[in-house]
Amino acid sequence: MKNLRSLTAIAAVLAATSATAQEKVMVGEPSWPGAKVMSRIIAQVIQTRLGSEAGYAPGANAVIFSAMDGGRGDIDVHPDVWLPNQASFTDEFVEGKGTVALSEGSYEGRSGFCVPTYMAEEHAMKSVYDLATPMAQDLFDSNGDGKGEIWVGASGWSSTNLNRVKVRDYGIETFLEPTTEDEAVFYARLKDAIDRKEGVVFYCYEPHFVHALYDVTFIEEPEHDPAAYVMVQPDEDADWLAKSSITTGDEVKTVTVAYSRSLEQRNPAAAAFLSRIDMQASDLSQLTRQTVIEGQEIDEAVAQWLDANGEIVDGWLGLR
User: pTM of the predicted model, to two decimals?
Assistant: First the structure.
């Protein structure tokens, strides 16, 4: 009888350990399209290839990192960490506390200004200095007021403030008026301009559906120099515009996945997968096009991509 009780106790411990090892994984879901796609990729792999449960938890960066630090399972994963943009969080929770880990794989994120490729090739609009010319003023004048326009982003974006500084300091503002119309309004105007093969120049970043939807080219800027890149945001100083100065391109971003180290005990298979996950910016741009522009249901688009890229997923799972 004693042996039977011992065996029963051991079985209970093993069952509890097994349950803990397969604990549900909650994937954070920031608001931008690329992050939403990445959250679905992560959750579907956990569900279909690892046999674990996964759920979604919308939240901003600060909320997601705080939850990962807590390690209680409220939020276990940040699917799209942009560095150095979010370095304050990784400095605290990855380098400092050691409660959060980053995936080995990553993709490059770029930001700057873009033009349709026909503007670069047919009108030699390739550099930021080409935009600070009377020719650019004529080519990018869409409303006939004698001055061109450059879309620097939507109101409220931190990048919009940064681009206003760039446009001023590159000398572009003399010839092109910075505009801050809503993103949806601008992209409707972009479509019309490209359909008519007219001039248009705008803030852009990659991955983004615009690179899968149209043939566009990044405008050349001087290589990033931290000493020539001083940005003060309005919430830091009311005199932010006068105190900012940018005469160099943006730093190339590294985009990776972050996850709570508590998963190494709570769901080791998921933690191992997350440590190896990788992604190509071009694939993410295409998926955002399918879901944002073409209206395909996001889970369907992601499932199709995973089915078509089994070898890549096998690599994430350590199977090859």
Answer: 0.75
